[in-house]
Amino acid sequence: MRYQATLTVNGIPYPVEVEATASLLRVVRDVIGLTGSKEGCDDSECGACMMLLDGRPVNSCSYLALQADGREITTVEGLAPGDGLAPLQQALLEAGGVQCGYCTPGMLISATALLSSNPRPSEDEVRVALAGNLCRCTGYTNIVSAVLRASEGHPAGTPG
Amino acid sequence: MATVEEPRAAEALFIRPDGKEKVTGLGRYTADLNLTGQAHAKLRYADHAHARITRVDVSKARALPGVLAVLTHEDVPDVKYGGMVQDRRLFAKDKVLWEGDVIAGVAALTAELAEQAVSLIDVEYERLEPVVDFAAAEGAPLVHEDWESDSGDDTMGRDGNRIGYSTIVKGDADAAMAEADVVVKGRYTTDCSQGVPIEPRAVIAEWHGDRVTVWSSTQVPYAARAGVATVLEIPESSVRIVVPLLGGGFGAKCDFHFEGHVAALARAARRPVKLVFSRREEFVAVDHRREGMVIELETGAKADGTIVAHRGRLVLDKGAYCGEGGFFAQMAAMHACGPYRMENIFVEASLNYSNTQPSSSIRAPTAPQTCWALEQQIDELAHALGLDPVELRRRTLIEEGAEGPTRQVFEKLGMKETLERAVEMIGYGRELPEDEAIGVACGWWPCFGAPSGAYVQLHSDGTGTIITGAQENGTGAVMAFPILVAEQLGMSPGDFSLLYQDTDAAPWDMGSCGSQTTFNSGRAAIAAAVEVREQLLDAAAAKLEVDREDVELVDGEARVKGAPETSVTIVDLVGEGGPFHGKGSGDVPEAPECDAEGCVGRLGMESFLAPQLITQAAHVKVDRETGVVRVLKVAAAHDSGVIVNPMGANGQVTGGVVMGIGQALTEGTQIDAEGRQRNPYLLDYKLTTAADAPEIEIAWVETPTANAGPKGSKGIGEPPCVATSGAIANAIRNVIGTPVRQLPMTPERVWTATREGNQ
Question: How many contacts, defined by CB atoms under 8 Å, are there between A and B?
Fold first, then answer.
């Protein structure tokens, strides 16, 4: 049985027809065609699939697409303003927080959610906020630095 | 011999060329690609770890509407393949040898249909006793009954379930042991563990007439090309492997395998076919894990700490197939000796088949576990001698002029300097709360000399492209090639684009394994740039009407040395002449001389080329009531030669240390008596999270090294996870007063050791 729904992703409404069991991640990747959000485990354990749903981070692999009907969804593709990069994205590159990049979309979503609710987090707060996003490459050091660097009041131009 | 000529430039901001597509989510990994009309693949795995196949019936699967192809061993050439031993078929034929053995593959219109078809395949078996205890594999039922007819490397010492046997022999260890003032013995066991790249592997294949293009999340595209050609009996020129962005590998994606299945399915289905692994498959079906080991060590020393005798007996779990990990026995034997001066040695290592997942290279194969055991052994020796463990290491670590386990005489190296830097950074010797302590571990890892090739070409506007066979698994090693090339040409790194991960474009390369990308592929890129430099100098000399020896390339110009006003821009040169293009490989450094006459199972690891040297110190806190260990800080001091890209190098250390912490404390694959993995999920196989990862302080001991790579560099990627487990183990021991001799050192094991130590 397929159902009609409208998923608003990064400000664009997409009318879709989906199975009741389809995850938000599947529909955004396979139907809408935005592949920035990754599937790492399909079990809410790795965080690579994270999206913002009405501003709150969710593991989209474990969220039904129909539950997102009519709500505002933000994926990694929606973080950059125009052709540029969001401060978090720029900070992640400058701090060396990107290696293979597979966890990066989920990390950016988690960090965006953190900074919107807590613009000046401590290092420990950053680490706790990112604890649901597994990274196998970086050891997290440079990702945490990047989030601190992008946070409010951080002196520009100095490494975090 | 390459040596350092000048100090490296101050740390510069390095933004990797593939960074923007990664942070915007626009970059494509293999699973992100979809081809028009593609079908979806699923594999049917064995139902038992060891069984004879008596019947396979695919008729119901073939009859399911929407199923385009179902393949078994009957539908592909009967070819055995494998790294150092050719012991494997694409689809199991007579027996299944582990739970991930592939019996059949299905291509269907949707992944769900393919899954359904897989479940409709009837397989009947005669169950056989699985060989799960690899240490007792000799004398157990044969995993490979026809092992003698499998072709393979004759020097490995194959014998039944023993696929490899290597020894390191120096002097007379028995006689010297009898003369030692102090002898310590230890027996250590390790669980197998996993690479766990966050990207599960994906493969897509599409045929164009008789040629196939395979997009694959592999670390070794050229090995994948050779593998597809071998199993389908087609020429390598008919196979093109393209690697989109690769979501990590850590060795786990270091062998040919699933490209063959998908290519065969696509040919049969007459349309592109895509295979994407689930996380469970990424644990259970991949033929790459870190090997479990049993390590027995006996070390004898004089009262002053001089190690006079060292004996070791190691057994390694190879799992069901050889893959590319056939060299592990010798590698483990070298690591059982470590970077120490030892006068007499007898170490033997057996690599045994079992009916479990194949072991192959995971980040520094064999080293972290063996180092973990040896470093605890060294600490026990220090305690027995009444010496501080750091002091014992000061007295026994290798240095310039020292002899290695096979009498390799070391040239300049920074082993002892790494020790001093690590203990300084961690604050060794300071007062700590009674539930906290510091542990120190040392280790080493060789550089691997291998052929590689690259092309460099300049374009008419003065930009250029580097075409390399090298593979970028995320480390950033390939991303730094523009730095190496631009330096040769007086240009800027930003002037260059990169073409990589396409076997049709560039010469053969070993792949992103063995910490070899900068070492070998970087050397090739520089050699190609040097050819272009010669062309530019010729053109500039003619244009400026000066002797070419007087021309230099600086800041985008060719100009006369000492008279910079006489110049021509590189843009003008390429605009007027050319073409300017070069190819290069460079000379592969040779392995150092050694005396390994008494050793058997010699596979090239008996001497260590340009050794990378490591000391790590860990500060931990142990909850004695629960056995939970928290790592508070790790100090990592490395001699990886000259550091080409500090940001990238530091990222390798922080990542390797955190991977090492996981392997030390939480990462172990549990295998039941039937040979099945019990915890193939991230909830039960715990990686270290951001909240658990400690502060990591890094020091680079940049030592000019004989036979180093570009700019005096050595490898970097693998060593950071080598010494971490050992440092944590010694720190735990310093809290609870007794060693933990099982890896990973889970709360249960730490708790048990604490109780037993108190008895």
Answer: 173
Residue pLDDT, tens place only, B562-599? 999 999 999 999 988 889 999 999 999 989 999 999 99
A127 touching B (Cβ < 8 Å): yes
Query: Which amino acid, one-letter code, is at A151?
Result: S
Domains of chain B: residue spans and CATH: 30-128+199-248+254-284 (3.90.1170.50), 293-449+593-758 (3.30.365.10), 450-584 (3.30.365.10)
Q: Does residue A132 sit within a domain? A: yes
The CA distance from B658 to the nearest CA of chain A, in Å, is 5
Q: Last residue of a domain, which of A54, A78, A102?
A: A78
Find the domain containing A114 and state its range. 87-150
Query: Of B13-17, B416-420, B572-576, B644-648, where does mean pLDDT reach its minimum?
Result: B13-17
Residue A99: which of B200, B278, B476 has the nearest Cβ? Answer: B476
pLDDT above 50 (res B8)? no
User: Are A109 and A74 contained in the same domain?
Assistant: no
Q: Do the Cβ atoms of B237 and B222 come closer than 8 Å?
A: no
Contact B317, B292 (CB under 8 A): yes
- What's the pLDDT tens digit per position in B275-306? 999 999 999 999 899 999 999 999 999 999 99
Claim to verify: residue A14 and residue A56 sit in the same structural domain: yes
Inter-chain residue contact A102 with B196, CB threshold 8 Å? no
**pLDDT of B699-721, one tens digit each?**
999 999 999 999 999 999 999 99
Q: Is the pLDDT of residue B14 over 90?
A: no
> B76 pLDDT band (50/70/90 cuts)?
very high
B-chain residues within 8 Å CB-CB of A39?
A: 31, 200
Q: What does each C-alpha distance from B707 to B340, B639, B711 come to in angstroms?
A: 21, 14, 11
Say how many CA atoms lie within 13 Å of B667 toward its Cβ: 25
| CATH number for position A92 | 1.10.150.120
Reading the block at residue B38, the tokens are 């593609």
Judged by CB atoms closer than 8 Å, whether chains meet at A46 and B693 is answered as no
Chain B residues closer than 8 Å to A45 by CB: 279, 681-683
A160 assigned to some structural domain? no
ipTM of the complex: 0.97
Considering its fold, how many domains does chain A have in total?
A: 2
Q: What is the C-alpha separation between B409 and B595, in angstroms, rounded?
A: 10
Please give the structure tokens belonging to residue B486: 């631009």
| Cβ within 8 Å, pair B279-A100 | no
Q: CB distance B654–A140 less than 8 Å?
A: yes
Nearest-CA residue of chain A relative to B196? A136
Answer yes or no: do A68 and A93 share one domain. Answer: no
Q: Which residue of B has its CA nearest to A123?
A: B691
Q: Which CATH number covers residue A15? A: 3.10.20.30
Q: Which of B23, B110, B283 to mutate to test the interface with A (most CBs of A within 10 A)?
A: B23
List C-alpha distances in Å: B98 to A68, B92, B103.
Answer: 42, 10, 11
Return the DSSP state at B539.
Answer: H
> Does the pLDDT value for residue B399 go beyond 90?
yes
CB contact under 8 A, B26 and A77: yes
In a domain, A156, yes or no: no
